[in-house]
Inverse folding.
């Protein structure tokens, strides 16, 4: 009502306490527990237990460190320094020690027997297979000439057997570079006729003449057969090589057993070396015009 006077403050507080006492407590809450506050668990330490934690926990959280641990660390550092100093002293002692004497390496081949050919002795007299097997004189000459092709070419072939009948004719073609020689071998006195001219007139160089005579001299028929050849193309040296090649091939036609010896001396090998062709933009095969920067 409007005319009533409000109760005093002490009376209002007493009424509120009475209402709270009459209100039933919520299930799960104990007396003296404020509603809505988190329930204390067994894992969370109380304030008393936190006050009783050891000093190590205080050190982990930033508290003062244990002086005993600091002293142990200092002792470990001192031991490490002493060990390093001792190692340095040992290294200095090793450097001061005199180096070990160097051993002379063994010479390769010291265990081999000395095989010296004295002056005046023939090294080919000793058989490489020992005394049990003796090499013949012909084999010795072949071994000596194997290192010298020119000496091998001058040696005659003793096993040549060519039919020298009156009508015997042996023909072949020889080539060297761009030169071609058509050769005819026939029984005679050892004359050479090249394009109707004798050998000395057609090839005035003694070196070329010697190269041309090599096949017949090797076989041993240089004075028993005549050579007639027709040649064209190439130069003087190329024609001489082509003629020797043609004579060697003609000898194979006369006696096929001579092939091995003539081939080993290089008479049957076609020399395929030719001049390299000129290229466009160059002066010769590989020569270039002089370069001018300005």
């Amino acid at each position: 009502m409007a005319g009533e006077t409000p109760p005093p403050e002490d009376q209002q507080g007493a009424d509120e306490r009475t209402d709270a006492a009459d209100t039933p407590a919520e299930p799960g809450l104990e007396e003296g527990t404020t509603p809505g506050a988190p329930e204390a668990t067994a894992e969370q330490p109380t304030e008393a237990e936190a006050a009783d934690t050891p000093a190590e926990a205080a050190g982990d959280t930033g508290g003062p460190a244990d002086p005993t641990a600091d002293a142990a660390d200092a002792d470990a550092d001192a031991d490490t320094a002493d060990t390093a100093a001792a190692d340095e002293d040992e290294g200095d002692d090793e450097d001061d020690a005199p180096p070990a004497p160097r051993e002379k390496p063994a010479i390769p081949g010291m265990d081999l027997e000395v095989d010296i050919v004295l002056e005046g002795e023939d090294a080919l007299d000793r058989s490489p297979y020992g005394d049990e097997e003796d090499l013949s004189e012909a084999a010795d000459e072949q071994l000596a000439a194997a290192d010298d092709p020119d000496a091998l070419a001058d040696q005659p072939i003793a096993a040549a057997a060519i039919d020298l009948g009156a009508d015997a004719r042996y023909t072949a073609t020889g080539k060297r570079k761009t030169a071609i020689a058509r050769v005819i071998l026939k029984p005679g006195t050892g004359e050479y006729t090249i394009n109707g001219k004798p050998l000395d007139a057609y090839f005035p160089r003694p070196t070329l003449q010697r190269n041309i005579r090599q096949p017949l001299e090797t076989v041993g028929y240089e004075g028993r057969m005549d050579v007639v050849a027709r040649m064209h193309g190439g130069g003087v040296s190329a024609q001489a090589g082509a003629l020797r090649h043609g004579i060697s091939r003609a000898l194979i036609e006369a006696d096929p057993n001579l092939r091995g010896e003539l081939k080993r001396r290089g008479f049957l090998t076609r020399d395929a070396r030719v001049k390299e062709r000129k290229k466009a933009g160059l002066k010769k095969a590989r020569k270039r015009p002089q370069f001018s920067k300005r």
About this structure: Confidence is low (pLDDT under 50) at residues 27-38, 50-65, 129-135.
